Amino acid sequence: APALAPNFLRNIIEADLAAGAHVRPGLPQVITRFPPEPNGYLHVGHAKSICVNFGLARDYAGQCNLRFDDTNPAKEEQEYVDTIMDSVKWLGFDWEPKHADGQSHLHYASDYFDQLYAMAEYLITAGFAYVDSQSAEDMAANRGNFGQAGKNSPFRDRPRDESLALFRAMKAGEYKDGEHILRAKMSEDAMRSPNMNLRDPAIYRIRHAHHHRTGDAWCIYPMYDYTHPISDALENITHSICTLEFQDHRPFYDWLLETLSAGGFFQQPVPRQFEFSRLNLTYIVTSKRKLRQLVEEHIVDGWDDPRMPTLVGMRRRGYTPEAIQLMCERTGVTKSDGWIDYSVLEGCLREDLDPKAPRTVAVLRPLKLIIDNFPENDSVECTAPVHPHFPERGLRTFPISRELWIEEDDFMEVPNKGYFRLYPPIADKPGSRVRLRYGYVIECTGFDKDENGKVIAVHCNYFEDSKSGTEGSSTYKVKGNMHWVSAPTAIPAEVRLYDRLFTDPQPDAGGKDFKLALNPLAKEVVQAWLEPGAELAQPEQRFQFERHGYFAADRVDSQPGKPVFNRIVTLKDSWQP
Ligand code: ATP
Ligand code: MG
Ligand code: MG
User: Fold this and answer.
1) Overall CATH class of domain 362-483
2) Which of 36, 340, 443, 487 is surrounded by the most beta carbons within 10 Å?
3) Ligand 1: which residue has its CA nearest to atom 9?
4) What are the pLDDT digits (tens) for 229-274?
5) For the whole prediction, is pTM greater than 0.90?
6) Which CATH class, in words, describes the domain spanning 114-222?
7) Pick from 376, 350, 265, 392: which is nearest to 567 by CA?
8) Using CA atoms, how far apart are residues 126 and 108, in angstroms rounded to an integer?
C-alpha cells in the first residue's frame, strides 16, 4: 500500500493501534461513522467528512458506519435518506459488511429510541437529569449569555420521582410541544459554566410530529447532543470524528458516556470525539438552507443542477468521484480553519480526467469554412489518436470535405497583433496560413457577410500535399493550428457551458447576501457541432473536447442520437470574475 500522508487523525489512530487502545473481541480496532441528518442533499463539505471517515476505516482495516442522524422528525424525509446513500456509494464508499460479523453497517439513530429513552430514565433516577417546566422565554433568559452566568431553573431540584413521572407523561402524549423539556444536570454549578453547551443542555423535547421511520410511535425526541454520543457508543465507534464547531460539545459527550458507563450501560473504552476543520471551498456556499433557497427560488434547476456544489449536482456536471477524493486527500486534515481555492478541485479534475478522457472535436460557436479548391461532394479520411499519450488506445477517423465548421473566434477580419489563426488577405499581404488539425494546411482567401455585416462564412484554399501524417506536410510551417468538423457529417448537440456559480470567492462570508454574487455566466447553452461518433456517447461518458476542456454526456438529458454535453472544467485555469 502507498505510504499515507500523515495528519493528526492518522497519528492518533496509529498511536491507539500501537497501544492496543481498542482491542475488543470480534471488533476492528478502528470504527468510524459518517452521521448525516437526512434533511437535505449532501454537498462537497460532506464529501470531505465521508472521505475522512470512510478513508480512515479503509486505510486501517477498520469499519465505517453510515448512520442517519434522524432525530428531528419535522425536517427529515425518506427522499433524503435515498439520495445520501446514492451519493456515498457514488463517491466510492460502502457501508456494507466487510467483516465476519455479517452485520450491516447502516444505522439509524431512530433505531435507538428505546435505548435512548431507557438511559434518560436512568439519568433522572440517578439525579443527572430533570424535567424543566419553565416557559421557553424564561428558559432562554435564565440560561444567561456568554460571559454572564445563568440562573438555575426553579424546577432544577424537583424530586426525581416527580421528574420521572412527568417524563413518562411526556412520552405518553399528555403534554403539548414545549410544555416540558428534559435537561441534563452535569454539576451543581453547571449554569455558571463559561461553556454555554454545558448549562443544563436539553436532552429530550416534546414534538408531536410524524417521523419518517417510527411514524407516530413517539412524541418526544432526543436532542442531537444526547443522541450522538450514545449512538456512537452503541455502535462501538472508536474515533468519532466531527468538525471544529463541536469542540465545545465534547465535554458533554465525555460526561454523558462516562456517566452512562458508571450506570452500567457501556464498557470502557467508550468512543472519543476528535475535531478537524471543515472544508470551506471558495466560490460556493454549502449551507443547506442557502442551497435550498437556490432550488426553491428557481435560481438553479434543482438539487442536481450541474452548477450546484451538491454531490448530485457535481455528478451530473461530470465531476468524478476520484477527483473529489483526490481533493479531499490533498487538502489534508487540520485543526486550522481556512479556505481552499476552488481551483484546487478543478486541478484535481484535470489531473484525473486527462489520462482517462478520450479526445474528440467539438465546435461550440460554429462558423462555416469553405475550402473553395476542394472537390465538391468529395471527402478524404483523416485520423487522430483517441489519446495522444496512449497510442494503444487506437485511432479515430473522420472525413474532411469542402465545407467545415470552425470556431467563430478562430477567424478575425482584422487580426490583432500576435493572432495566428485565420484572417483574410489585407492590401498586398496574403491571408493567413494555418493547419486544420489532422487535416491540411489552408490559406484564407476571403469571407462573406450577411446584410447586417456579420461574417457568415470564411473562404480558403487547401494544399493537397500538406495532409497531416504525410511526407509533404512537414514542408509547411504554420503558426496556427485549429480544430474543425466536416459539415455534412457533423453531429448536432446541445452543449451546456457551466462555470462557477458565484463571482465572489466567499459569497456568504460575514453575513453577505450571497445572491448578489451569483455569476450570470455560470450557465450558457450553445448548439455545437461534434465529431461523428459523439452521438453514441453513453450518459455520464466523459471526453476531452480538444482545445476546450472536459465534457460529460448529461446523465438525465443526453440520449443516444441526441447528445447533450456538460462542460466539467476548462483545459486551463484561466478563471476571472
Ligand atoms: P447543516 O448544518 O447545513 O444542516 P450539516 O453540515 O450539519 O448541515 P449533517 O448532515 O449533520 O449536515 O452533516 C453530516 C456530517 O458532515 C457532519 O459530521 C458534519 O460535520 C460533516 N460536514 C458537513 N459540512 C462539512 C464540511 N464543510 N467539511 C467537513 N465536514 C462537513
Ligand atoms: Mg448536522
Ligand atoms: Mg449542522
Assistant:
1) mainly beta
2) 36
3) 36
4) 999 999 999 999 999 999 999 999 999 999 999 999 999 999 999 9
5) yes
6) alpha beta
7) 350
8) 27
